Amino acid sequence: MKKRSVIINKDNAVISIRGLCKSFDTVDVLMGMDLDLFKGENVVVLGRSGSGKSVLIKLIAGLLKPDKGTVKVTGEEVSRLNVKELEHLRLKIGFLYQGSALYDSMTVKENLEFPLVRNKRHLTRKEIDEEINQVLENVGLLQSINQMPAALSGGQKKRIGIARTLILQPEIMLYDEPTAGLDPVTCGDIITLINDVQQKYNTSSVIITHDLTCAKYTGDRVALIADGKFRKEGTFEEVFTTSDPEAKSFYDYNFIIDK
Ligand SMILES: Nc1ncnc2c1ncn2[C@@H]1O[C@H](COP(=O)(O)OP(=O)(O)OP(=O)(O)O)[C@@H](O)[C@H]1O
């Protein structure tokens, strides 16, 4: 496993977060966060359970509203958009949920067809079939086209979940714990796929995880959340070759698989 170098355009921030705050009742989750995601880049957001990683990507996707601060996605301030504008913006964002969120009563093909037909009404039957075949080939699961989700392994479900977001050709991918619950070999396959997606689809991605192997091999940059803020940010080595107690304790309790 090796992270290939990619071209990152540091003049073009596709996500720009400034002074972001979010609390629930008496719990202050995010307390003034700043982050840029540049075009072509994979940024990994690491943090302990409950540190606010999922809240952060829900704010990016406009599923939650900030109490303070701004989230701009491709230049648009998410919390100022109306329903229609938000729907339009979400077409640019592929959100891979932890559970992959496939429809259990539909085949793999129908799961992929559903978002495509709904959002690209002009496509012909032939074009729909071609796009489905292409995306399944790109995630290495063309042979599963007629299977039901229940017949797929955890890793295969993740692949189909990724295919379902890719079918709308998003500019941005948000991965919520993409390797959670998978065995080490399958984790390695998903890491490779995340990097393939970055290259083939030229996506910019936020990957939230507490899996250091995933962070090390997918992240062009890593940002560590602690106490509602980004505590450290940089390459994987920069973040973890440090005496910072928060980074060190996070590192010490994790297990990295080197290949
Ligand atoms: N809708 C909500 N209402 C109330 N509290 C919430 C809500 N969503 C999140 N929280 C709280 O915000 C905090 C951060 O949650 P979040 O799910 O972002 O953590 P996380 O870093 O993603 O954790 P994990 O790694 O376990 O998924 C938690 O204390 C959680 O209980």
UniProtKB/TrEMBL annotation:
<dbReference type="InterPro" id="IPR027417">
    <property type="entry name" value="P-loop_NTPase"/>
</dbReference>
<dbReference type="Pfam" id="PF00005">
    <property type="entry name" value="ABC_tran"/>
</dbReference>
<feature type="domain" description="ABC transporter">
    <location>
        <begin position="15"/>
        <end position="252"/>
    </location>
</feature>
<dbReference type="GO" id="GO:0005524">
    <property type="term" value="F:ATP binding"/>
</dbReference>
<dbReference type="InterPro" id="IPR003593">
    <property type="entry name" value="AAA+_ATPase"/>
</dbReference>
<dbReference type="InterPro" id="IPR003439">
    <property type="entry name" value="ABC_transporter-like_ATP-bd"/>
</dbReference>
<keyword id="KW-0813">Transport</keyword>
<dbReference type="InterPro" id="IPR017871">
    <property type="entry name" value="ABC_transporter-like_CS"/>
</dbReference>
<keyword id="KW-0067">ATP-binding</keyword>
<dbReference type="GO" id="GO:0016887">
    <property type="term" value="F:ATP hydrolysis activity"/>
</dbReference>
<protein>
    <submittedName>
        <fullName>Phospholipid/cholesterol/gamma-HCH transport system ATP-binding protein</fullName>
    </submittedName>
</protein>
<keyword id="KW-0547">Nucleotide-binding</keyword>
